[in-house]
Write a structure and sequence with these properties.
The complex is a heterodimer of chains A (254) and B (196).
Chain A: E1 3-16, E2 20-27, E3 31-37, E4 56-62, E5 69-79, H1 88-103, H2 111-126, H3 132-146, E6 169-172, E7 177-179, H4 181-186, E8 191-193, H5 195-205, H6 215-232, H7 240-250
Parallel strand pairs in A: 3-5
Antiparallel strand pairs in A: 1-2, 1-4, 2-3, 4-5, 6-7, 6-8
Helix pairs in contact in A: 1-2, 1-3, 1-7, 2-3, 3-5, 3-6, 6-7
Chain B: H1 2-12, H2 19-31, H3 34-50, E1 52-53, E2 60-61, H4 67-70, E3 75-82, H5 85-94, E4 99-103, H6 121-129, E5 135-138, H7 144-157, E6 164-167, H8 183-191, E7 194-195
Parallel strand pairs in B: 3-4, 3-5, 5-6
Antiparallel strand pairs in B: 1-2, 6-7
Classes of the chains: A alpha+beta (254), B alpha/beta (196).
Bound molecules: zinc ion (ZN) (2 copies).
């Protein structure tokens, strides 16, 4: 069995059989993969604390062509990211990011996506609780950019005319970004985005930071991101972690 | 062949049973006397009818209250919060704990669609508000999801009155499973619990 050794991040883990776990891993060298960790629940000797959610390390995976499930031969943990469990906003945001990566998964190596994911989880873990939603929003757009879905923000998504940075502009999911005044008149639907929201989106897509969001701005950004994801998740799978994150961040429900 | 297929399909829905094992179990039953299958079917029916969650703590029971809640020697003022009813067995085997329990019915797991309202936290808060509880020991698993769940319990109990909320000590291996910890480890984790 060929052995794949790669940097990996645990995105999801669930129990399997008596004492094993199945992990969904984002790897730098092999895309998103599923791996069986035999005896992971019973014995700590083999994998230690490595198999916790959002942990990052060097994974040794036994792969077999034509099989979807690898076997985890070892995992040397580098970062555990326990801080993501020290605040419910951080935990919910990081879970939504993991879900995003799992939704658009492929088993092709994508170092840029892997690095965007790692940097995003680190940023959420380091964010003060009041800014956890900003960090996760920024990370989501950064990951979307790495996935190749970045929306058009500097120029019109239809006619490529350059856009004035300050003026509000119409964002439509159908066009995949902002529209100039002329194209906006012809487009049905869409949301008007104030200049500040546009600048935040632009900064986040480049991996940068924006000014702190107040509650209404965070709500609007969460709604925009949800609509964007639903538009691109073609098979209509539910975004369960995203919904919980949005509910938690906007204070509706728990 | 549809009866065989039907049973194999049902077996294959059980955790850890693949199609091959499901067929093996089915053929095994076919070779046994009919009485054996009848007993199995009856046991399954009875279980489904009789076993239900305890009205106070959500442990599994055949009565209104579970054996722990009914036991007059247990200290009703100390409540140990666990993820699953199966965790109670592990703590009971350790033989040290004299309080009662509260089963959350899982842990926060957004990717599996499990949020705060899918757990019995609100019922725990009600129970504490009802009075007579001095300490709540949070014994969710020492995993990232278990820690987040502990945080949720702590937060929800903040407005529930005068109650000490403690967390079991992490003598338990991180990422491990309470169900698989040995008695000594569990007893030590309980004794060395700290305020949250
Ligand atoms: Zn245009
Ligand atoms: Zn009970």
């Amino acid at each position: 069995m060929p052995l794949l050794v790669s940097d990996a991040i645990v995105l999801h883990a669930f129990d399997y059989l008596e004492s094993s776990r199945i992990l969904r891993l984002a790897t730098r060298e092999g895309g998103v993969r599923s791996a069986l960790a035999k005896g992971a629940r019973r014995s700590q000797r083999r994998f230690g604390s490595a198999l916790d959610l959002f942990a990052q390390g060097s994974a040794q995976l036994s792969t077999r062509t034509g099989r979807d499930l690898d076997t985890l031969a070892g995992f040397d943990v580098v970062a555990s990211r326990a801080a993501l469990a020290e605040d419910l906003g951080r935990f919910a945001g990081a879970s939504a990011i993991a879900e995003l990566v799992l939704h658009f998964q492929s088993d092709h190596a994508d170092p840029a996506l892997f690095d965007a994911l790692a940097a995003t989880l680190d940023a959420i873990a380091a964010a003060p609780p009041s800014r956890a939603v900003d960090a996760a929003l920024a990370g989501a757009w950064r990951v979307i950019g790495a996935l190749g879905f970045a929306p058009a923000l500097a120029e019109c998504a239809e006619c490529n005319a350059p856009l004035d940075d300050e003026a509000p502009a119409l964002f439509t999911h159908a066009a995949g970004g902002l529209l100039c005044e002329r194209c906006a008149r012809l487009a049905p639907g869409g949301r008007r985005m104030p200049g500040e929201a546009r600048r935040a989106l632009q900064a986040w897509s480049r991996g940068g930071e924006a000014d702190p969001l107040d509650a209404p701005a965070a709500r609007a950004h969460l709604r925009l991101l949800r609509e964007f994801l639903l538009h691109h998740v073609v098979d209509g799978r539910p975004l369960r972690a995203f919904e919980l994150w949005e509910r938690q961040s906007t204070g509706s429900g728990a | 062949m549809s009866a065989i297929d039907d049973l194999a399909t049902e077996f294959a829905k059980l955790p850890g049973i693949g199609r091959k094992t499901a067929l093996r179990l089915t053929y095994h039953l076919l070779k046994q006397p009919a009485e054996q299958s009848r007993r199995l079917a009856q046991t399954l029916l009875t279980m489904g009818e009789r076993v239900r969650p305890c009205e106070r703590c959500y442990n599994l029971t055949e009565d209104v209250l579970c054996a722990v809640c009914r036991d007059p020697r247990r200290d009703q003022a100390v409540v140990c919060v666990v993820e699953e009813a199966s965790d109670i067995g592990a703590i009971e085997r350790a033989g040290e704990y004299r309080g009662v329990y509260h089963v959350l019915g899982g842990r926060l797991s957004p990717l599996d669609g499990v949020g705060p309202e899918d757990l019995t936290v609100a019922r725990l808060v009600e129970r504490v508000r009802g009075g007579g509880v001095r300490e709540v020991i949070v014994a969710t698993n020492p995993s990232l999801e278990g820690e987040a769940t502990a945080l949720l319990v702590r937060r929800e109990l903040a407005g529930a009155g005068e109650v000490a909320v403690t967390r079991i000590a992490l003598g338990l291996p991180v990422g491990g499973d309470l169900e698989y910890a040995d008695g000594v480890t569990i007893a030590r984790a309980l004794t060395a619990r700290r305020a949250m």
